[in-house]
Amino acid sequence: MRYTPAGLPALDLSLRHESQVTEAGHPRRVSLEIRAVGIGAVAEQLGKLAVGDTAGFAGFLGSHRNGKGVLLHITEFDAQPASL
């Protein structure tokens, strides 16, 4: 946990997704890791998750602080998402 210059809690994390989908009639394995950040109350709640927990996340995409790469800004999450 870190704090922004405005004093808000912020938590930097990495999210990993793995699944299998069908594309053009063939199964395809999908794997993705993305950097993410939660700020404010969301950061405090994210801090309660353990490494490896499964959750559903919502938010918006922006650039990383250094301008390189994509960063998911988490605005809400469900620690027990429904099966997809």
UniProtKB/TrEMBL annotation:
Which Pfam families does its entry note? Answer: SSB_1 (PF22657)
GO MF terms listed in the record are:
single-stranded DNA binding
Q: Name one GO biological process term.
A: DNA replication
Can you quote a single GO CC term?
replisome
Extract the signal peptide range.
none
List, alphabetically, the InterPro entries matched.
NA-bd_OB-fold (IPR012340), Prisomal_replication_PriB (IPR023646)
Classify the source by domain of life.
Bacteria
User: What protein is this chain from?
Assistant: Restart primosome assembly protein PriB
UniProt source species: Methylibium petroleiphilum (strain ATCC BAA-1232 / LMG 22953 / PM1)
High-level lineage: Bacteria, Pseudomonadati, Pseudomonadota, Betaproteobacteria, Burkholderiales
